[in-house]
Specification:
With 314 residues, the chain is α/β, with parallel strands linked by helices. It has 2 domains: 191 residues, Rossmann fold, CATH 3.40.50; 113 residues, UDP-galactose 4-epimerase, domain 1, CATH 3.90.25. The protein contains 12 helices and 12 strands. α5 packs parallel to α6 and α7 packs parallel to α9. The longest helix has 22 residues. The chain starts with a strand and ends with a helix. The structure holds serine. The site of serine (SER) has 11 residues, from loops. The site of serine has 11 residues, from loops.
């Protein structure tokens, strides 16, 4: 990785990944792209280009103009939004990915795109979900993710594109909020706890999902991309996780820092159904063995940091 182009650079992952990559690889070597520009640091701290990922020509031209050797494709709709707009989700998530893979092929670039725990479905083993297992998701988002993993593998085998990916769990951060995901509750809860001392969860008690703090997610992306290709048995995509909790457990942890924090429940049937179709916890052993994946933050450490950072910010 020397010159990196990122799509969806102003989104939940991109807005932080862009800054981290600029620190490591140099500001001018990280080309942020998104469908529109804003005032954020990611948009302002280095090269930025407006690129609609459904426009193959624009993507290839931008990559050529900046002579990139790595494409990181992050632009996508999350699970709940994709469920509300399935046709649009297919066109954006799959069309965007196809264009990004074609761009990588054309430039002979290394390639990264995130998959998700959403790639699993109700018939997948729920606990300690293996790396290689049944993948029959029942959401449009999940269908996109499985198809995306297969397509990324296809580009590796067919065209020799160095494609790599991670099955991310819910990602938690105090920088850019996610939008339209099922795991978003685990981010919203911190904002509401600090602002109002209470939170109404749309996910029900007892619903376990994997989660990870953003600093661990960023390190995982970079470490995977820098990993020795000879050591990779898998590519698209690796299970990674840092913790698994249900709404009650995160509420208890928050209560340790915000006394009197109150949790109530108003379950959203759409997002609950999505959550119920996903694993309780996934097994990251393949990522640990093949490229040394490790997470620093558990629920307690993340909660302490989230609350400190959000208190300064809000
Ligand atoms: N955070 C994502 C979502 O909830 C999962 O990949 O859609």
């Amino acid at each position: 990785m020397k010159r990196i182009m990122i799509t969806g650079a102003l989104g939940q992952i991109g807005s932080e990944l862009t800054l981290k990559l600029r620190e490591i690889y140099g500001s001018d070597n990280v080309i942020a792209t998104d469908i529109r520009k804003n005032e954020s640091e990611a948009a302002q701290s280095g090269p930025f280009e407006t690129v609609d990922v459904t426009d193959l020509n624009a993507m290839v031209e931008t990559a050529k103009k900046h002579n990139v050797d790595t494409v990181m494709h992050l632009a996508a709709l999350l699970s709940a939004t994709a469920e509300a707009k399935p046709v649009f989700a297919w066109n954006l998530n799959m069309g965007g990915l196809m264009n990004a893979l074609e761009t990588a092929r054309e430039l002979n670039a290394q390639f990264f795109t995130p998959s998700s725990i959403g790639a699993f479905g109700p018939t997948t083993p729920k606990d300690n979900t293996p790396q290689d297992t049944i993948m029959r998701p029942t959401t449009m988002y999940g269908v996109n993710k499985v198809a995306g993993e297969l397509l990324s593998d296809y580009y590796f085998h067919k065209f020799g594109v160095d494609t790599r990916g991670l099955r991310f769990p819910g990602l938690i951060s105090y920088v850019t909020p996610p939008g339209g995901g099922t795991t978003d509750y685990a981010v919203e809860i911190y904002y509401e706890a600090i602002k109002n001392g209470r939170y109404t969860s749309y996910i029900d008690r007892g619903t376990y999902m994997d989660m990870m703090y953003m600093p661990d997610a960023l390190n995982a992306i970079i470490n995977l991309m820098e990993a020795d290709t000879a050591k990779l048995v898998h590519r698209n995509s690796f299970n990674v996780t840092a913790m698994s909790f249900d709404p009650e457990e995160i509420a208890v942890e928050i209560s340790k820092h915000i006394s009197g924090f109150e949790m109530s429940y108003q379950v959203d049937p759409v997002r609950q159904k999505i959550a119920d179709s996903w694993p309780n916890s996934i097994d990251p052993t393949a990522a640990q063995n093949e490229w040394g994946f490790k997470a620093e933050y558990d629920l307690a450490k993340m909660t302490k940091d989230m609350i400190e950072k959000l208190r300064q910010q809000l």
